[in-house]
Design a protein that fits this description.
- The chain contains 9 helices and 19 strands.
- Helix 6 crosses helix 7.
Length: 368
């Protein structure tokens, strides 16, 4: 992996040079991890004119939550506990006679930006923009392998929950059990706070679990994901509790399933982000649910659970192969509940079999 991280930094260095910048300062944790293999708390990366250095408050531990640092990369532990690694990086760039430093302005605070200017007044600060995020869009096969394992873990945790007794248990208890099962199966932790919604709470996006207990004939919506070696997946399913589904539940489920299938089928290299969103959204909109729909029908996943691309009506750009995304339409009927179906997939060309489905738990409407 050392060669992989070095190649990623070299590509960023070339892009900075083409824009007239001598060095780059990376402060966003996911971007630091992408370029170095690890993101110790507060660490920043200087992609310098002479060498690359990771500045951190304490030596990297190699623990799963921060990753394993590229062995070929030098790191510098700050001698003073209260010192700012970004300021130390800018100081080194200035000492190396860099004329300009590209920074992630979308991540820096105003105060930190001022501190950089004060320590290196002759260093011109430029905006790096989303250069690293753009590099992260297309995943290599090792990254996809991590996502595939994360999806397998999430599928296992969800499958085990479905085999247990659910009636009478609270949303909060079910969410905690799912997160425990994720770790039991090898996850570093949940990819995001697990959402469990029952009855009138079902179908809500990112519903925060409450003390409401599962009841017979409820819709139960579960959305969870695993974090494996920093890579995060997402799966969401909706079930009916303990009885044959009512007609309205079947009708609503079939509608959301059709929308989700349309979104999945639209995932081809070259497809516009907005067209994928439209494929799923139009199915729900035509059934009269347009006003209550989410702002997007899906998003990218990787080192963050919600990263580019955004599959939204106004999103600009087109899909490439090897870009992992979610497709997650849903409808919530106030006071009654609703349905969400959420998968993580990898965009693949037709010659390779089309989109690769990572989350494989059944999408049949089960009565549990």
């Amino acid at each position: 992996m050392s060669d992989v991280y070095a190649a990623r930094r070299a590509l960023l260095r070339d892009r900075c040079g083409a824009a007239g910048n001598s060095a780059a300062l990376i402060t966003r944790p996911a971007n630091v991890r992408y370029l170095t293999g690890a993101s110790p708390p507060g660490a920043v990366l200087l992609v310098g004119p002479a060498e690359d250095v990771l500045f951190c408050a304490a030596a990297p531990t190699g623990e799963a939550d921060e990753g394993r640092l590229d062995e070929g990369l030098r790191f510098s532990v700050l001698p003073n506990p209260g010192a700012d690694p970004a300021v130390a990086a800018a100081d080194l760039a200035a000492a190396a006679r860099a004329e300009s430093l590209a920074v992630e302005e979308h991540h820096l605070t105003v105060g930190r930006h001022r501190a950089l200017r004060s320590v290196a007044p002759r260093l011109r600060l430029a905006d790096l923009g989303a250069a690293v995020e753009q590099q992260r869009l297309v995943k290599d096969e090792e990254e996809i392998a991590c996502l595939r394992i994360a999806a397998e873990i999430a599928d296992q945790a969800l499958g085990e929950l479905l085999e247990s007794i659910l009636v009478g248990r609270t949303e909060r208890h079910l969410a905690l059990e799912l997160e425990r099962r994720l770790v039991d199966h090898g996850a570093d932790g949940p990819a995001f706070p697990t959402s469990v919604g029952t009855g009138p709470h079902s179908g809500r996006s990112r519903h925060r679990p409450s003390d409401r207990r599962v009841e017979e004939a409820d819709f139960l919506t579960v959305c969870l994901g695993a974090n494996y070696r920093g890579y995060r997946c997402e799966i969401g399913r909706t079930f009916v509790i303990g009885t044959t589904p009512a007609d309205w539940q079947i009708e609503l489920y079939d509608l959301v399933f059709a929308a989700q299938r349309a979104g999945r089928e639209a995932l081809v290299p070259g497809a516009a982000y907005r067209d994928v969103d439209h494929a799923a959204r139009s199915v729900l909109d035509s059934a009269g649910h347009g006003e209550a729909l989410a702002a997007s029908m899906g998003h990218g996943v990787g080192l963050e659970i919600d990263e580019d691309p955004q599959l939204a009506p106004t999103a600009m750009g087109k899909l490439d192969a090897c870009v992992p995304v979610t497709v997650e339409p849903g409808v919530h009927l106030p006071g009654r509940g609703g349905v969400r179906i959420d998968d993580t997939l990898v965009v693949r060309p037709e010659a390779d079999g089309g989109p690769e489905l990572l989350t494989i738990t059944t999408k049949e409407l089960l009565a549990l």
